[in-house]
Amino acid sequence: MWAKYERWNDRHAIIVDIAGREVGVIVTEVTEVLLLSGEQIEDAPLLAGSNECIRGVGKTANRLLIILDLSQLLSVDELEAIVVA
């Protein structure tokens, strides 16, 4: 999984890989961009309820970061639109 960040004309986009395609997600604000190594990412813990959209937990010196699986946040129709595009 990878992501990159772009900014243009006061707009922000996070470019991610979903289903093998580069997809831009427009966001209101980006406060920080981090690069984590594989050693800093652990599998998602089992939680009460569903945690299918959580891909893992990133750990830095003083923070825990929830890493989302965007393909789990999108509907089947939205994923199909990405693959077809």
What is the structural class?
Answer: alpha+beta
- Total number of distinct structural domains: 1
Task: Tell me the strand percentage band.
Answer: 35-45%
Which regions contain 5 or more consecutive residues with pLDDT less than 50? none
Give a count of the beta strands, DSSP E runs of length 2 or more. 6
Shape descriptor reads globular
Overall mean pLDDT stands at 80
Annotation field: number of helices: 2
The secondary-structure element order is EEEEEEHH
Helix percent reads 10-25%
Calculate the terminal CA-CA distance, rounded to whole Å: 20 Å
Radius of gyration: 14 Å
Strand order of the largest sheet: 1-2-3
- Major sheet: 3 strands, antiparallel
Which properties best describe this structure?
3-stranded antiparallel beta sheet; single chain; globular; 6 strands; 85 residues; alpha+beta
Describe the structure.
The protein is α+β, with helices and mostly antiparallel strands and 85 residues long. The chain has one domain. The protein is built from two helices and six strands. It has a three-stranded antiparallel beta sheet. A hairpin with a 4-residue loop joins strand 5 (54-59) and strand 6. The protein is globular, with a radius of gyration of 14 Å. The mean pLDDT is 80.
